């Protein structure tokens, strides 16, 4: 278990890492976050995650007291302090302590913390066998109410969707927007494959522009597959040959049943498996080195 947490300029033991109950991140979900992964000492797509964090911050008028380069270094240092080579990193910036009013202008400054831990979102066997999914009754937040490009701490919509999956005895839930188009999972993007062509919903429907999603699109192109960004419905998911979800925490996980409909032959399909292999290669090969080269050799 990782013990060293970065909190507001220092590294402290996890038991000592505490925030105020007046923090608006806690009171109102007023803050932003990123989930990042390290594979074999390489932080995957670190600059992209940090950029998305600063874009979220700008959008909600939140000042982060570090430059993007400093933040990259703090992420790497958190991994080093915990002596990890593969880990999931959670980087959070809250609005900071204020009072019980909603106004953020009373808050005394952003709180920044970074946690690095081992994490597998699903049991390892499910990455081989595939997961079960339902469609959630809860719809995704409308983009004109809360733009999903802001990766905010306001994740209650996602939590409710996960509760529905659990209540139905499924591993995950697929979420629709208010018009009934498929958007994503509770915390992952979705792809379907039909006749060798991949489709993923466009971000404007309400999906996060996932960094893993972008990686998978590039890898699919490199492998010669056509990828369409197009709206589709539950029906298209049911009749797809293959379905899989992507995300930093979830990585790439096949989906083998949706609302009790068997996808394809009920096992992860060839396109999913090829992309999974390519994903594993690229995550372990590319990325920002956490440890100096001489320390490894
Ligand atoms: N959608 C949602 C709602 C998410 O929370 C996440 C995880 N950050 C994703 C998609 C996947 O995004 P990424 O690949 O950048 O982790």
UniProtKB/TrEMBL annotation:
Query: Listed GO molecular functions?
Result: branched-chain-amino-acid transaminase activity
E.C. code: 2.6.1.42
Q: Where does this protein act, in terms of pathway?
A: Amino-acid biosynthesis; L-leucine biosynthesis; L-leucine from 3-methyl-2-oxobutanoate: step 4/4; Amino-acid biosynthesis; L-valine biosynthesis; L-valine from pyruvate: step 4/4; Amino-acid biosynthesis; L-isoleucine biosynthesis; L-isoleucine from 2-oxobutanoate: step 4/4
Q: Which domain of life is it from?
A: Bacteria
What name appears for this protein in its UniProt entry? Branched-chain-amino-acid aminotransferase
UniProt cofactor(s): pyridoxal 5'-phosphate
Keywords recorded for this protein, A-Z: Amino-acid biosynthesis, Aminotransferase, Branched-chain amino acid biosynthesis, Pyridoxal phosphate, Transferase
């Amino acid at each position: 278990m990782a013990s060293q947490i970065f909190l507001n300029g220092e590294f402290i033991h996890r038991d000592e890492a505490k925030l105020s109950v007046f923090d608006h991140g806690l009171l109102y979900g007023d803050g932003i976050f990123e989930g990042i992964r390290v594979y074999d000492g390489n932080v995957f797509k670190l600059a992209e995650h940090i950029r998305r964090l600063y874009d979220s911050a700008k959008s909600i008028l939140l000042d982060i007291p570090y430059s993007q380069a400093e933040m990259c270094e703090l992420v790497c240092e958190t991994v080093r302090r915990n002596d990890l080579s593969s880990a999931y990193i959670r980087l959070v910036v809250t609005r900071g302590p204020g009072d019980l009013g909603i106004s953020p202008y009373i808050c005394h400054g952003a709180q920044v913390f970074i946690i690095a831990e081992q994490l597998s979102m699903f049991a390892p066997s499910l990455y081989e066998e595939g997961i079960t999914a339902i469609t959630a009754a809860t719809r995704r937040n409308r983009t004109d109410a809360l733009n999903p490009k802001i990766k905010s701490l306001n994740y209650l919509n996602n939590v409710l969707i996960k509760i529905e999956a659990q209540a139905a005895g499924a591993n995950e839930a697929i979420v629709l927007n208010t018009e009934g188009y498929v958007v994503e999972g509770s915390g992952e993007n979705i792809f379907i494959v039909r006749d060798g062509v991949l489709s993923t919903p466009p971000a404007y429907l309400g999906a996060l522009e996932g960094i893993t999603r972008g990686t998978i699109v590039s890898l699919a192109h490199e492998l010669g597959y056509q990828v369409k960004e197009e709206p589709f419905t539950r029906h298209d998911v049911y009749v797809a040959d293959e379905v899989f979800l992507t995300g930093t925490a979830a990585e790439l996980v096949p989906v083998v049943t949706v609302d009790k409909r068997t996808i394809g032959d009920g096992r992860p399909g060839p396109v999913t498996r090829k992309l999974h292999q390519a994903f594993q290669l690229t995550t372990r090969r590319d990325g920002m080195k956490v440890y100096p080269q001489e320390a490894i050799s």
